[in-house]
Amino acid sequence: MDYAPHDLSPRERYKVLTGFVLPRPIAWVTTIGPTGVVNAAPFSFFNVFCEDPPLCMFASNLRPDGRVKDTVINIERTGVFVVNLTDEPLARAMHDSSGDFPPEIGEPDYLGLKLAPSTKVVVPRLADAPWAMECKTWKRIDINNRQLFMGEGIHFHIRDDLWDRDAMRVHMDRYHPVGRMFADRYCRTDDRIEFPAAPVVAGT
Fold first, then answer.
1. Is residue 145 one of the residues assigned to a domain?
2. Distance of alpha carbon 202 from alpha carbon 186, whole angstroms
3. From the centroid of its chain, how far is CA 132?
4. Is 103 domain-assigned?
5. With 4 labelled, which of 18, 40, 59, 87 sits at a CA distance of 20 to 30 A?
6. Per-residue b or e along 103-125, where b marks 16 or more CB atoms closer than 10 Å to that residue's CB
């Protein structure tokens, strides 16, 4: 079975892409509104793609009724945001934060999520997140009304129990991230595979 993208509707293309490109990491993005309301919204069109400078990317589409999401409006105004990652204990709250909340109701407050001040941006981070990166907007691209935000990480926060400072490695036995599958489905990541180092093949 094969398709040419132009033979599919945007919704059908979305279903093909999200049905096979998985599991996907989830950016739980916190932003702040003009009255100080903190917004938290998950985005699974997300990844990091550079370390010098540290850059991440996430994409936000319009709401089903055509309205622009609060995350986009808030970043437009402030130029900053925080990418929080989620793990199993936070997974249900992350999923619930994807609901349709009015701008005057912040998801962290409604869901009972603890906030902590950031170091270099005005936007708070989620205090219990295993990892968070404070970001300033590096570039924004409009793609058919989907906003692609590229953020430069300017400060990292790591939950103390997850990090070996001497080895500069995560304690994988303690870190239990979740991934996005499709629709309302997620996956755990504890069933892991290890391979020996890949061979080094000399050129001819």
1. yes
2. 41
3. 10
4. yes
5. 59
6. eeebbbeebebebeebeebebbb
Per the CB < 8 A criterion, the answer to whether 54 and 152 are in contact is yes
Q: What is the CATH number of the domain that holds 121?
A: 2.30.110.10
**In a domain? residue 47:** yes
Nearest residue to 48 (alpha-carbon basis) of 85, 91, 93: 85
**147 alpha carbon, distance to own chain's centre:** 14
Domain that holds residue 67: 5-188
Per residue in 182-198, pLDDT tens? Answer: 888 999 999 989 999 99
SS3 of residue 199 by DSSP: coil
Residue 86 lies in a domain: yes
The count of domains in the chain is 1
Q: What is the pTM of this model?
A: 0.93
Return d(Cα 80, Cα 74) in angstroms, integer: 8
In angstroms, the CA 35 to CA 53 distance is: 32
- Copy the structure tokens of residue 99: 């609901």
Closest to 14 (Cα-Cα) out of 51, 47, 44, 52? 44
Nearest to 75 by CA among 128, 116, 27: 27
142-147 long-range contacts (CB < 8 A, ≥24 apart) are 143/59, 144/10, 145/61, 145/62, 146/59, 146/60, 146/61, 146/62, 147/59, 147/60, 147/61, 147/72
Q: What is the pLDDT of residue 112?
A: 97
